[in-house]
Amino acid sequence: MTEHEEHNKDEKIAETLHLNNNHHHSSSSHSDDDKKTTSSPPHTSSSSPVTSSFKSKVGRLFGRERPVHKVFGGGKPADVFLWRNKKISAGFLGGATAIWILFEVVEYHLLTLLCHGLMIALAGLFLWSNASAFITKSTPHIPEVHIPEKPVLEFASAIRNEINRAFAVLREIASGRDLKMFLLVIGGLWLVSILGGCCDFLTLFYIIVVVLHTVPVLYEKYEDQVDSFAEKALHELKKQYVVFDAKVLSKIPRGPLRDKKKA
User: Fold this and answer.
1) Which residues cross the membrane (predicted)?
2) Where on the phi/psi map is residue 144: left (φ > 0), alpha (ψ -120 to 50), or beta?
3) Prediction pTM value
């Protein structure tokens, strides 16, 4: 082999090594870029994680975990209270307002109203039925009214379940296991007794209807703000209860526990 051929061979080997080094360097640089691209998170708006973290930090009122619509049962009553159908909600609230004005402002009586309404309806239908032969018009179609059994049974069953649940809660409170719940219930009943002394049952019922048609929908609209304020208020109430328990409740003498087990 001549010197010229050996020199060409050495140049080819050096060129091959140089190409391999360049290929390795480029592949390593690509892999580094891929790692940077993979490790760097995609650009997202900073508002969504902040909002989600804020919502997770805010404790819901009374430990609520379900939406407001589900708390009210998720059916037609919830739709009425939360104004999902504005016509039905406005009609219900307007009807309650009209009834309250008739019985409280005008001082109309329920039995008188029912009798006058039936008198007008029966007189109108009777005259229409007898005068149809003279005025060449068809007789009025008087529908047959029947109360269906299934909705009545469902309503009665729902009322029964709620009454049984209320009795169970009252029994739990009367057992003396939860002093805080006992004080809350006593305070609530005392407040209702004050309201009952200031107004009659119809006015109190109308106030409840107005509250059910205003407070839930406003709470659903300003849910985060109300829950944040309520969380701070409950924290302050717990602090005051601890002070009250240490200064008053802990000093109330209690009898010794009697062992009811027979030897």
Assistant:
1) 88-103, 109-128, 181-212
2) beta
3) 0.52
CA dist., res. 167 & res. 22, Å (int):
84
Q: What is the three-state SS of the chain? A: CCHHHHHHHHHHHHHHHHHHHHHHHHHHHHHHHHHHHHHCCCCCCCHHHHHHHHHHHCCCHHHCCCCHHHHCCCCHHHHHHCCCCHHHHHHHHHHHHHHHHHHHHCCCCHHHHHHHHHHHHHHHHHHHHHHCCCCCCCCCCCCCCCCCHHHHHHHHHHHHHHHHHHHHHHHHHHCCCCHHHHHHHHHHHHHHHHHHHHCCHHHHHHHHHHHHHHHHHHHHHCHHHHHHHHHHHHHHHHHHHHHHHHHCHHHCCCCCCCCCCCC
Check residues 67 and 228 and name the one with the higher pLDDT. Answer: 228
pLDDT of residue 160: 93
**Per-residue pLDDT, 204:** 84
- How far apart CA 197 and CA 191 sit, in angstroms, is 10
Cα–Cα distances in Å, from 56 out to 48, 218, 237?
12, 21, 22
Q: Is 82 exposed, middle or buried (0-12, 13-18, 19+ CB in 10 A)?
A: buried
Q: Residues 87-110: what's their mean pLDDT?
A: 90
The 3-class secondary structure across 179-237, one letter per residue, is HHHHHHHHHHHHHHHHHHHHCCHHHHHHHHHHHHHHHHHHHHHCHHHHHHHHHHHHHHH
Tokens of 14: 């050096």
